């Protein structure tokens, strides 16, 4: 469309190819690894060897959140999660939304909206895909919910694990009945790309906790990091 618009007006168009990026410590290898480990597209990046980005997998959501809080010295560290927990605090302000064992936190959806990433108090809360696209912090903590698990050595998406108010996969049951294969491919693409987006918000580091123990171990082994 841009090329056609320029041609119609006699404008000279110069096309440039971006060679790299500054997100994720400028590591194209990390982005390629994310695509491979989330089975979005196959790449040659089987581990994170050589990547300057700090990547850690935690076995406890509370410990992961505490590690991100410790990195928040410049107000540039936040925690995000897949949209797998209902927004209870919307109508009951004192309620917790994300509950994983003893870990209890609230979604940051009530007051800050898209400004959650710069609101100082939001370090105690959790952001989601709907408020963090296009935004970056130094360190990002990611909670992978039960909508993405490891089963029989392969990643499997679980759409029913997403909150019913998540509009990104709205109507998926009907779609599965009409076109099972096409609907499943769409579901896989949406869920996997959700976590690709969340796991690429950090400029210096990404800390991850997955509710599925098998997925935590898979990420740990594939990263080559402890």
Compute the number of strand runs: 8
State the order of secondary-structure elements, H for helix, E for strand.
Answer: HHEHEEEHEEEHHEH
Which band does the percent of strand residues land in?
15-25%
Using only C-alpha atoms, the radius of gyration works out to: 19 Å
Secondary structure: helix percent: 25-40%
Number of domains in the coordinates? 1
Name the poorly predicted regions: none
Note the total helix count. Answer: 7
The assigned structural class equals: alpha/beta
N-end to C-end Cα span: 47 Å
What form results from the Cα inertia axes?
Answer: globular
Major β-sheet annotation: 4 strands, parallel
**Major β-sheet strand ordering:** 1-8-5-2
On the 0 to 100 scale, the average pLDDT is 90
List the helices and strands and how they pair.
Elements: H1 2-8, H2 28-37, E1 54-58, H3 61-70, E2 77-81, E3 98-100, E4 103-105, H4 129-132, E5 137-144, E6 148-151, E7 154-157, H5 172-178, H6 180-198, E8 202-210, H7 213-223
Parallel strand pairs: 1-8, 2-5, 5-8
Antiparallel strand pairs: 3-4, 6-7
Helix pairs in contact: 5-6
Task: Please explain how this structure is put together.
This protein is of the alpha/beta class and 226 residues long. The chain has one domain. It is 30% helix and 18% strand. The chain has seven helices and eight strands; from the N terminus they run ααβαβββαβββααβα. A four-stranded parallel beta sheet has the order 1-8-5-2, sandwiched between helices. β3 and β4 form a beta hairpin. The protein is globular, with a radius of gyration of 19 Å.
């Amino acid at each position: 469309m841009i090329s056609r618009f320029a041609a119609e007006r006699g404008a000279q168009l110069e096309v440039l190819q971006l060679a790299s990026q500054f997100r994720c410590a400028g590591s194209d290898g990390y982005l390629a690894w994310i695509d491979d480990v989330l089975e979005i597209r196959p790449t040659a990046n089987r581990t994170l060897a050589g990547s300057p980005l700090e990547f850690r997998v935690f076995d406890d959501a509370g410990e992961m959140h505490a590690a991100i809080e410790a990195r928040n010295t410049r107000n540039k560290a936040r925690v995000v999660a897949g949209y797998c927990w209902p927004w209870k605090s919307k109508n009951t302000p004192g309620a917790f939304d994300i509950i994983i064992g003893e870990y209890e936190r609230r979604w940051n959806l009530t007051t800050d909206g898209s400004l959650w990433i710069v609101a100082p108090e939001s370090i105690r809360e959790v952001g989601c895909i709907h408020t963090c696209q296009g935004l970056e912090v130094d360190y990002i903590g990611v909670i992978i919910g039960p909508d993405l698990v490891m089963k029989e050595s392969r990643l499997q998406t679980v759409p029913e694990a997403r909150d019913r108010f998540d509009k990104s996969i709205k109507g998926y049951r009907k779609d599965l009945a009409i076109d099972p294969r096409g609907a499943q491919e769409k579901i896989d693409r949406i869920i996997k790309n959700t976590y690709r987006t969340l796991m690429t918000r950090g400029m210096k580091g990404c800390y991850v906790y997955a509710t599925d123990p098998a997925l935590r171990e898979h990420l740990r082994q594939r990263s080559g990091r402890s």
